[in-house]
Amino acid sequence: MDVVLEIGKREIRIGTVEELDPIIIPISYKHTGESNYLSDHSLTKDQYQSIISQLDESNQIKLQQYNESLGTWIDIELISPMILQKLLFDAIDSIPVNIKRCFLIDYGFSQKLKNNICTSLFKYRIKSITFIPAPLLYTIGSNRRDALIVNKEWSTIHKVIDLRIIGEYDIDEPIDTIILKSDIDIRKTLRENIVNTKDGVGCWTACSLYVASTKNANWQEITKDYISQ
């Protein structure tokens, strides 16, 4: 069975190809990182509490909320391979099928992260993994071939023309500047096709339908043998 996998900052989505709605697994793990390092190693408990008590009430509330949120979100490029593996295993265990191919939505992941993801997934005897760029899927999901994809969650803007990514920008880059710096023949197209990723069918659903409609495509599949090289 073929599945689509999307790793977000606060949840993982997984489901079989052709489905419209994925299973959603909230990010959840025991956090033992930097926020506790200061109190456990540099200060005594009394010293730590003394510093906290000097914060005004609003900042104390913010600190409490932050501490409570730890373990419910990830910085995917910095997360440890062990935690990543646990999260992926939890997602795979939620879907009662034998996975042959996994189509994974790529939000510009580093090669190191892709290798870690593949290493974890191959432990579940998945035959192959294909990374599909998210900007292309958002474009397809909005029934376009050309678009300026604005993704606030990942803090990026992508320029897509004829289903090819031709530019990537930080979310703080003004859209007008991006358009004006583009070739003159695509400026009007970009201005008329600004896509906010919060709108439309969503990246996971777009990927599911796209893969289902292109089953015979020549996918660039990653196999266990390739990772082992």
UniProtKB/TrEMBL annotation:
It comes from the Eukaryota. This is Uncharacterized protein.
